[in-house]
Design goal:
- The protein is α/β, with parallel strands linked by helices.
- It has helices spanning 10-22, 61-71, 85-90, 93-115, 121-124, 157-176, 198-208, 227-240, 257-271, 302-308, 316-329, 331-337, 340-351, and strands at 2-5, 27-31, 51-55, 75-78, 126-132, 180-185, 187-189, 212-215, 221-226, 246-249, 254-256, 284-287.
- Strands 3-2-1-4-5-6-10 form a seven-stranded parallel beta sheet, with helices on both faces. It has a three-stranded mixed beta sheet with strand order 7-9-11.
- It is globular and about 70 Å long.
Length: 355
């Protein structure tokens, strides 16, 4: 069995679904079910004998100790995190609690559990920590992409909290010998993405006839990674990664945000044309930029390809087409996640920006 934390969130739920589709090994899925955790993401495996869901917090040491002792996982994959930059600007404390203190509590529980393992189970155990490229800071237009040796220069409360968690994971390997792995990924997109991030927000707002808010000039560049490619990379690292190592995971798809919005509009013009005959581009609205907005992220994913033979399957063009189609086909899911709390958050974040 493996223990997955944050397995009802966007990336975590995709990982659980893909794992169960490709493996007979059971998954113990621990998720706090905050606004971003959604049991509906896991509806297709609700009755799966290999999926055990537990609602709980990675900061709950007693719960962690109990689950580890009872289920004896051979690996822990940690997705649990607060992950939205804008939310971290409005309220950083949740990010400190979950991303730093939660990771610390999880590491402590896992260290104690791993220390009690015997025989082949102990050297075979792995703790895989899923992190972000945002810990590296911002790049200028012509700087080379982030490698695993790039210095940490986080610029938001979110990225600073993830950087701290990465350092804790590293320290537990070097101090205690805990066999850890860390992955730093670029911007994910795909099915089950909570509609506060750029791509799902644009799709949902476009279909609802609402403004498509673009921060600043829209020329912030990101490397885009289809979520199922990310999941396959994590499986590759868990399977063959060297303990103590960091692996950057990217899609080799650098795109300005405005290009992303234009691509989504073009796909919707084709797949769900307006009765008026107008383009969804007409809904684009430029709003005040995010404070401290990083200009460019770019991932050099050469190490994971050289060492583990992994590279993404999807191009941005194939991945975004699948993503838009998924949202068109799953309007019930979209409606269910847009609760009153979600609407209040969108109002809070965008009203002051002029959207």
């Amino acid at each position: 069995m493996i223990l997955v934390t944050g397995g009802a969130g966007f990336i975590g739920s995709n990982f659980v679904l893909d794992w169960l589709a490709q493996s007979d090994e059971p998954v113990l899925n621990l998720d706090k079910l905050t606004y971003a955790g959604n049991r509906e993401n896991l509806a297709s495996v609700q009755a799966h004998a290999g999926h055990l869901f537990v609602q709980g917090d990675i900061s709950d040491s007693a719960l962690l100790d109990s689950l580890l002792a009872k289920h004896q996982p051979r690996a822990v994959v940690n997705f649990a995190a607060e992950s939205h930059v804008d939310r971290s600007i409005h309220g950083p404390e949740d990010f400190i609690q979950t991303n730093i203190m939660g990771t610390f509590r999880l590491l402590e529980a896992v260290r104690a559990y791993w220390g009690g393992l015997t025989g082949e189970a102990k050297p075979a155990f792995r703790f895989l920590h899923v992190s972000t490229d945002e810990v590296y800071g911002s790049l200028s237009k012509n700087e080379p992409a982030f490698t695993e040796s790039h210095p940490y220069e986080p610029n938001s409360p979110y990225s600073a909290s993830k950087a701290a968690s990465d350092h804790l994971v590293r320290a537990y390997h070097h101090t205690y010998g805990l066999p850890v792995l860390t992955t730093n990924c670029s911007n994910n997109y795909g099915p089950y993405h909570f509609p506060e991030k750029l791509i799902p927000l644009m799709i949902v707002n476009a279909l609802a006839g609402k403004p498509l808010p673009v921060y600043g000039d829209g020329m912030q560049i990101r490397d885009w990674l289809y979520v199922k490619d990310h999941c396959s990379a994590i499986r590759a690292v868990l399977r063959g990664g060297r303990a103590g190592e960091v692996y950057n995971v990217g899609g080799w798809n650098e795109k300005p945000n405005l290009d992303i919005v234009h691509t989504i509009c073009a796909l919707l013009d084709q797949l769900r044309p307006k009765t008026s005959g107008k383009s969804y581009r007409d809904q684009i609205t430029y709003v005040a930029d995010r404070p401290g907005h990083d200009r460019r992220y770019a991932i050099d994913a050469g190490k994971i390809e050289r060492e583990l033979g992994w590279k993404p399957v999807e191009t941005f063009e194939t991945g975004i087409a699948k993503t838009v189609q998924w949202y068109l086909d799953n309007q019930d899911w979209v409606g269910h996640v847009q609760s009153g709390a979600y609407r209040e958050w969108v109002q809070t974040n965008y009203a002051a920006r002029g959207a």
